[in-house]
Design a protein that fits this description.
Number of strands: 14
Structural class: mainly beta
Radius of gyration: 17 Å
Largest sheet: 6 strands, antiparallel
Distance between the termini: 27 Å
Amino acid sequence: MKQSFRPLGVTSYTHESLSNSVFITYTAAKKPGKFDLIYRPYLFNRGKGVLSYIGSISYLSMEEISFRNQLLKGELDSIAFDALYSYARRTPIHPDGYHQVGIMMYDISIEEKYFLYTLFLYEDQDGTLYDTERLDVLLFEKEPQILNNALLPKPSGSFSKEKYSVYNDKERHNLVREIRKHNLPMAEVLDLN
């Protein structure tokens, strides 16, 4: 019965009513050979219950990894977090509703392939913690493009996939431990103690 009211967070580049929305953009960084990757997805609730959005964690890699598992084991040291304050967390998203996630940005070098991992965290009305783990593989041409007197990567394609998970008590404890290492207020929202 509990599963029938599970929220389900699905991410997307755009929403039908938002014709000019942007999910990933690239701007020139201040250093030569660098660029800013700006990531601002929409999170949709495709489940049957209310989704209480807590926040998101992301990681940019040059190779494919097991992001969620490595995060919970404490094997990643350069994760990025959204910029939400504690009072802005637990935003309710009703079934078939959506929410634009806060901006995450990376200042990176121009390479041919990036693996962008994002973990979207949310709870159901009973306080059970879930996540959507999204992988965006970003492919670029070998030679960058010149735009407004700046070198920018020239996209050559991308693809994505998502996985959905529910947390047991041990996994939730490990997640809180890892977030606390970065001294972020999201840990206080997630901690059940």
